[in-house]
Amino acid sequence: xxxxxxLGQNAVKAKIKLATxxxxxxxxxxxxxxxxxxxxxxxxxxxxxxxxxxxxxxxMSAAFLDRLSLNEDRIHSFAEGMRxxxxxxxxxxxxxxxxxxxxxxxxxxxxxxxxxxGIIFEARPNVTADAFALCFKSGNAVIxxxxxxxxxSNTAICNVMRNALxxxxxxxxxxxxxxxxxxxxxxxxxxxxxxxxxxxxxxxxRLIQSVVxxxxxxxxxxxAGTCHIYVDKDxxxxxxxxxxxxxxxxxxxxxxxxxxxxxxxxxxxxxxxQIATKLQEKNVELRCDDTSYKILLxxxxxxxxxxxxxDDWGMEYNDYILAVKxxxxxxxxxxxxxxxxxxxxxxxxxxxxxxxxxxxTQVDAAAVYHNASTRFTDGGEFGMGAEIGISTQKLHxxxxxxxxxxxxxxxxxxxxxxxx
Amino acid sequence: xxxxxxLGQNAVKAKIKLATxxxxxxxxxxxxxxxxxxxxxxxxxxxxxxxxxxxxxxxMSAAFLDRLSLNEDRIHSFAEGMRxxxxxxxxxxxxxxxxxxxxxxxxxxxxxxxxxxGIIFEARPNVTADAFALCFKSGNAVIxxxxxxxxxSNTAICNVMRNALxxxxxxxxxxxxxxxxxxxxxxxxxxxxxxxxxxxxxxxxRLIQSVVxxxxxxxxxxxAGTCHIYVDKDxxxxxxxxxxxxxxxxxxxxxxxxxxxxxxxxxxxxxxxQIATKLQEKNVELRCDDTSYKILLxxxxxxxxxxxxxDDWGMEYNDYILAVKxxxxxxxxxxxxxxxxxxxxxxxxxxxxxxxxxxxTQVDAAAVYHNASTRFTDGGEFGMGAEIGISTQKLHxxxxxxxxxxxxxxxxxxxxxxxx
Lengths: 420, 420
Known about the structure:
Two copies of one chain form a homodimer.
Chain A: H1 4-18, H2 23-39, H3 41-57, H4 62-68, H5 72-87, E1 95-100, E2 106-113, E3 116-121, H6 126-137, E4 141-145, H7 151-167, E5 175-177, H8 183-190, E6 198-202, H9 205-214, E7 227-231, H10 237-249, E8 258-264, H11 265-279, E9 285-288, H12 290-296, E10 305-307, E11 321-327, H13 330-340, E12 345-349, H14 353-362, E13 367-372, E14 390-391, E15 399-400, E16 407-418
Parallel strand pairs in A: 3-4, 3-6, 4-5, 7-8, 7-12, 8-11, 9-10, 9-11, 12-13
Antiparallel strand pairs in A: 1-2, 2-16, 14-15
Helix pairs in contact in A: 2-5, 2-7, 3-7, 5-6, 10-11
């Protein structure tokens, strides 16, 4: 088993080569690797069976097993994702700015690869292929540290990709997998500052907390989303109902799903029953503050109507549960979001443009929506083509992390002997 | 004495107000504060005298005392710096991108303040005024943690600025100084993740290392600069001599000064004696590899010609000392820079455009120069007007940190009830 120090050194060697590849070389390689994934899908599926068997024996839930398991179709979709990345514009070499200074010094600020990216993720083996494709296209070497549940699948996918790179005489170390899936290996990776330029954790709160606590390598935090929808007194009720219903129930497990509904008091008596009734189509449990509880009592089944506890505010349920609160003013809604939001996606439903603009300006989050579902916070929906996660921090990139967000920059400066 | 938790809460309250100020309000405030600094300069100078007295008693060096001491002229220059920031474009509210998606969702990516910035710095009291001006103009609240040597000066400057803000009914907590100058207070500040969005350390290697090791708040590393100049075989010798001389001796204490000279073997026998002789005007000590030592033996005084030890490569001398090495190829120079550079500023002197372009592409640093001194890496020289440091890391900002680099971004998204 290679140690992390060795992986780091390998990645640094690979990144030097990757930074010099042309767009055509990169695209050709991605298509070749996609083909290899399909060609060798049997070996990947075989490895995946071991993971699934182990998962079953460990008593993994059906939902979890479903996310873990691979078949021809799923591997085909990895390959198609990789081909899609090949069609996206190359983010490297973009000219971000050009300035000629009064002393005739010519400055060119250009996009360059970040270098070596470490990605720490949990069960889903698709990350192995997806993350590689985005890192490779943006000229970065990647070190992947996946969870133990998918280690056989990840290893198989990684080996196919490495072999395919070698077939093209490209550095196989463009993608490396940490075989050791202990907590120690994750910690070591996030402290491998000598070789690694960026760590992206993809997973739950505990993983992200551990990275923030322990990393010495710069981190982009992703994924934690407690999204709010504020229904203003001037809201179109039908629109509000549809947006809340859709944002809560279309896919409750994801980070851009709504977790908390805030309703203006002037509209609450009418809006809440209508929205709550619609949510009963998906049997959503409503955890209510006193005012909304009183309004909804008798309007929906008692089983789905509960009193919110203190820790319901700010909770990311990832389930068919919604916290509900009546606010006296929009400022109260904004304050609530400030206190309990995670800076991911926040929404106002209102017909008043002024009110909307005030909300969009005051609320500090990666994405703030007027009259649209929070579920749109997504690389594909934003036109980036693919993403590696949603940044909820303020430095470097906020919102979906696409190819451009996986680049750094440098100044090339052309002189004629200027000395200052 | 306020504790850090309290300072954090105050800063968060202030940042909400700061984010809503108009450009005119901010500029007016900066001019008013500048005036106040001049008006109350006597009280600042009085406080500074205590710091200087303490410094003398502690045996502080003359150079250090000089950097610490304030007089009317220096305070006037702080004020002028603040007025200059008032004239710069407001970085907040810039539209970075606009997209209309096929589903008619309209996305606007705009620049917003980062929020609360913590700055940990060492002796120079000018940072108190300079850092505040840049943070304030970019809509951020700042918590300053200066060193103990300047605590009385920093407190006096901070109080004048806070009073001036209050006079305009603006939040005084836009700028707060941590009165406790212990290592513990610095550590606490860099872990105040609940309130602080960014830490910028300004100081020596030890400070930056401590921040990297301990911070949970995102960090922009600044300042460590081991800059190299590579004199290619096709260099114009007179230009090379001037660039090296100027980059080494115009101000050796700063991070963009040259620390290491790499010379191509084909030109070394002619170039080295000429450059070394010129450097003797400033009595520069040359720490040489074997080949350059042999070339220079007998050409300059023996006192300034020494053998380089292993740790001379990569050393930031901040003094009239230069490491010197002869390389067989440009690739060897690039490898040396890769191994020993700090990603700050690197330079090639050559008349060959192809060679220059190859160097500028291969070398991974914030600023890469063709035929110009590394000393140009500076916010003023880059046309930013002012800077808060030079970032040597790859995320968010690289090179001089001006006003734009002190902003984050968010997506405002305008819909018509889109549900996905």
